[in-house]
Amino acid sequence: MAHTDESEEGLILDAIDKWVARKVAPVAMELEHGDVYPADLVEDMKELGLFGALIDPAYGGLGLSATTYSRIVTRIAREWMSLTGIFNSHLMMAQIVQRFGTDRQKEYWLPKFATGALRGGLGLTEPDAGTDLQAIRTTATRKGDKYVINGAKTWISNAIEGDANALLVKTDPSAEPRYKGMSMMIVTKIDPETKAPLPGVKNGKKLEKLGYKGIDSGEFIFEDYECDADLALVGGEEGRGFFMATGGLEIGRINIAARSVGIAQRALAESVAYAQTRKTMGKPICEHQAIQLKLGEMAAKTRAAELLVEDAARMYDTGERVDMEAGMAKYFASETAVDVATQAMRIHGGYGYSKEYPIERLYRDAPLMCIGEGTNEMQRIIIAKQLVKRNPV
Ligand SMILES: Cc1cc2nc3c(=O)[nH]c(=O)nc-3n(C[C@H](O)[C@H](O)[C@H](O)COP(=O)(O)OP(=O)(O)OC[C@H]3O[C@@H](n4cnc5c(N)ncnc54)[C@H](O)[C@@H]3O)c2cc1C
Fold this sequence. Notes:
The chain is 53% helix and 15% strand. By secondary structure, the protein is an alpha+beta fold.
């Protein structure tokens, strides 16, 4: 399994810290408030190798461990969480090819994904199917050496600015149980070689959101879209898409948990600093016990969330299935992000509500962490099922 040695990790994290301080921090506030796609930062992210972070070096990636990867994600999310979605959704698509693709698919897709020349995300959700993935209605029908795709996806990260997608489809809509009729396809909006737009696929509207600004969340509409069966059908075998989608979510959940830790760490750091400079009743507010109680709780929860992420990432790196550990990290860290961002707003008083401070941004970004990669309702159900499975009586 992937392993990143300490000196290599140190160099990478140092490069990330410098980039965040020099390039991201000066523009994050303005781009976030304007909901502007950070095109220049995406070019930097290509140079830093982030689009290939989890891709095997044999295909041009960095081949980082999940542990190092999650530390990178936390560092970037401390400054601007949205940036991590641009490469994480992309890497979930890449991971599906890397873990389940045929040799030809790996050789064809992964080098293009690793450089960021072809970027994209994961297309699971539909207007009538989010949590209940088996209810999707997008179909892929075999026609000779091609598949013809019809249907619609929504809420897809990188749908508009990206060009590729790992798309969950039904290849046998009447299959029972329903998951047996599901497959995963790699589809593109452009010809990967000539870059010419392809017919049969278009984007719907860009979706407006509370937070997670800058990154595009959009719709895909497929009308008789044709793709090469050999390159598109991941693994070359129908009926395995549901397993690929849910297996891919493990690293996605670790990532969301790592992002949540970034949000919580920043909210805590801002609060610790602010509480020392803001004075009321003749003393800094950090000397009021009501504020101390908040800071103490925020710090303990943030550290616990960080350790849960480290634990899940370390286990993922050993190659074990980590449904329960990734679920625990995702659940606890995302609830912590919401909680700590809310407490940070209280500590900042009226200034927490001001757009001149980063707190309102953290406060708007945090709730998505409870929804993405499986809602927190589902996480607790997954944890409970695993608990019972691992501890039979
Ligand atoms: C900003 C953003 C970006 C996103 N990016 C992507 C992306 O890149 N790719 C992608 O495929 N999707 C993406 N999504 C979609 C996201 O994964 C879904 O919103 C999420 O899975 C929940 O689905 P839903 O919104 O349809 O809610 P529903 O499934 O309708 O759920 C509604 C509520 O019911 C609860 N619930 C549902 N079923 C159960 C159950 N069995 N037991 C208990 N409670 C239940 C849920 O927890 C939730 O509270 C994104 C969403 C957002 C907001």
